[in-house]
Amino acid sequence: MAIEVRIPTVLRSYTAGAKAVDAKGETLSDLFTDLDSRYDGLRGRLVSDEGALNRFVNVYLNDEDVRFLGGIETPLSDGDVVTILPAVAGGGRDADVRA
Amino acid sequence: MLELRQDLYDAMVAHARRDHPDEACGVIAGPAGSDRPERIIPMLNAARSPTFFEFDSKDLFNLYREVDERDEDIVVIYHSHTATEAYPSRTDIQFGSLNPDAHWVLVSTRDPQVAELRSFRIVDAAVTEEPVVVVDGLE
Prior knowledge:
- Chain A is α+β, with helices and mostly antiparallel strands.
- Chain A has a single domain, classed as Ubiquitin-like (UB roll).
- Helices cover 16% and strands 23% of the residues of chain A.
- Chain A is built from 2 helices and 6 strands.
- A 5-stranded mixed sheet of chain A has the order 2-1-5-3-4, covered by helices on one side.
- In chain A, β3 and β4 (64-65) form a beta hairpin.
- The N and C termini of chain A lie far apart (30 Å).
- By secondary structure, chain B is α/β, with parallel strands linked by helices.
- Chain B has one domain (2-134): Cytidine Deaminase, domain 2.
- Chain B contains 3 helices and 9 strands.
- In chain B, β5, α3 (90-96) and β6 (103-108) form a beta-alpha-beta unit.
- The two termini of chain B are 20 Å apart.
- The relative contact order of chain B is 0.22.
- The interface between A and B is medium-sized, with 24 and 36 residues.
């Protein structure tokens, strides 16, 4: 089961510069585990210590934000496209945002 | 260095003034690989807050798709600080580090008369200010 995963510039150091890679998994969580087996450390940039999606990235299944689907447990199908984009946020409030 | 057309400079300041006291945010796209800001795209601040901004996730997806289709890059990411100086906050540094290729432009609207606009690169949590050179847009 092949799923195309689009990688943002900031994470391409993990994929040897590749903009898109193929991976497999029944769910998004499985997919991240599969990615991490080949691109060591990538999962840690996507998932917080508590196992939820990291606050600093947006993950889309086809064109839907997975937060509005099943989050990290969103089921995947052959031919799906997963897009990872860095969140764009910030502002004058001078505090750390937790992953 | 960030070389910026006068009309784009003015548009960012006007957007920041318009949305004050909430923070305003947006991007300037330019031809891929050029590092030249050309097309301003004001974005909605999904947080609608005087101290925080965030692009709506659907808007962000559509923005990337549009920029890709037009063979552009996001050259500038701008937002306003409404009560503090135009310098990256800790929050800015966290999120700015995720977008190391963009010029991180800040506009402060704390003074209603005087616009303050500064540009930074944020790479691996290190902030470097860069000069902003405003050029005539009539080429």
